[in-house]
Amino acid sequence: MNFNEQLFDKTRKAIPNITTRSISRYMGKSDGYWSSMTSQGSAITTDALLSFASVLDFIRNESPNKQLTELISFVENEVAHRMTYIDMPNYRVRKSILAAVSRINYNAAPLAPLPVLVGF
To answer: What is the SS3 assignment for 102?
Structure first.
């Protein structure tokens, strides 16, 4: 089962009456986004996942449930993986890129803790 299928399955468990059109809208996209991406075998974009997580968090604040919390965690883990995974065989370059990402994150929110760097 690929990521899109897992995401849809977890979303249906958390929000049983949701449609693919609603998922697309929650992702900040047009109604046909989900269907288009899955029919093409394309991954949902990171930007769409971030929008989706934001809407899910709002829904969770209104009516919390365990499945919704698990869904948000699933989306967050996927985004974190995408942001830290670099397909670069050169260890020093990969390490430099991840250090630059950490500096940018720190400068954007200096009071926030630095992200954990994974993939060395």
So the answer is: helix
